Amino acid sequence: MADETNRRPLPATSWAVLGLLSFGEELSGYDLKKRSDRSLRFFYWSPSFSQIYSELKRLERAGYASSRTVAQETGTRDKRVYRITGTGMTAVREWARETPPDPPVLKHGPMLRLWLGHLLEPEQMRELLLQQQEFAEEMRLRAVADKTDAQDGPSQDGPSSAYPALTLKWAERYYASERDLAAAMLEDLEDLEDPAVPPTARGEQP
Amino acid sequence: MADETNRRPLPATSWAVLGLLSFGEELSGYDLKKRSDRSLRFFYWSPSFSQIYSELKRLERAGYASSRTVAQETGTRDKRVYRITGTGMTAVREWARETPPDPPVLKHGPMLRLWLGHLLEPEQMRELLLQQQEFAEEMRLRAVADKTDAQDGPSQDGPSSAYPALTLKWAERYYASERDLAAAMLEDLEDLEDPAVPPTARGEQP
DNA sequence: ACTAACATGTAAAGCGTTACATGATTTA
DNA sequence: TAAATCATGTAACGCTTTACATGTTAGT
Fold it and tell me: Which residues, at least 6 apart from B128, have a Cβ–Cβ distance to it below 8 Å?
């Protein structure tokens, strides 16, 4: 039963978790965290285990998900699995359609350091940018891997995995760009430290 | 005097605010919020007024900043202005040099909606992407404007504004890419909805 | 037998926002 | 003289993480 005492709108994270369930599968908190790391992670952040567990409780309280315990074979262990309800499908659909998204937020730690370049040695700035390139390339490769995973296992009925695949394609390009942006800034940095060759003198006019 | 009872490491936001002070100016909380909106905002998020005020108190308690009240002319109004201390400069320099940055975090609300494309109408997805393009272009233009502002007003002594300008240049490219990524996804979406012309048949072979 | 990974949570604490309160200054 | 902006905070609240607690399963 839905507990309708909570009239406050749910935070985006709740909808993200309910979104993971909206593909129709019955999943445990642990499963949801893994799915989250392979999808949400690339364009939204992936919530911690403990938050996923508490979001699931909230969703159940709201009537948007139902749970049951599953006992495995002979062991006494029981795991709790969640499934989206009809009410939940209606609610998440309405949220996705009607609630205008907040502007994207970027928290870019490395760029924060580079902004404080007057406190760093040039070598440290280069190091930061190289690490950033590596990170971006690694994320890009993971997005590619998860995209092919999602396409190879189209599973059964459920909704098409076309849109998740589309966002992973977006992520692939996003991290490629992130990688190239680091490379470009590396060049800008060299121009700055070597004023003998001003940037306008490179690659202009034959 | 520094209150050394607090041994916990400061959160990144504290360093960001101290970073704003590390350029040497004496600034009020209000000033800092404005600076933040014109620099940090593009690659890190801009904290709220109330958080800036509480961060300033924490920085003063830690001995990293000092404040004094300034009375304007005849009015009884007094404003509090902050300046970084020597200890503060040392601390923020060490933080920037020694503390490895967390990986960049992106919270992309529009992409979260698009990932749930099976809950939306195609027209709504197009609308989301168009708004995203607009947003990205607006941010890009603001970064350009703030970059020229920063270069035109090199002010007096202080550290060079070269590194802030560099990060604004990065932001300019970042938001240009964000804009183009939305356009690319718009095309992918059309390919998806019109399977008569598969994507591989566009622009390949003569 | 031991270790790593699986699995499910609770508790405490801090981060960060929104709403609220207050008052001065400037502009229309 | 009314409204908008400048300016400085406090209080309440909720989001989110880290640390902790507990036990199972699978591999070596």
Answer: A101, B110, B113, B114
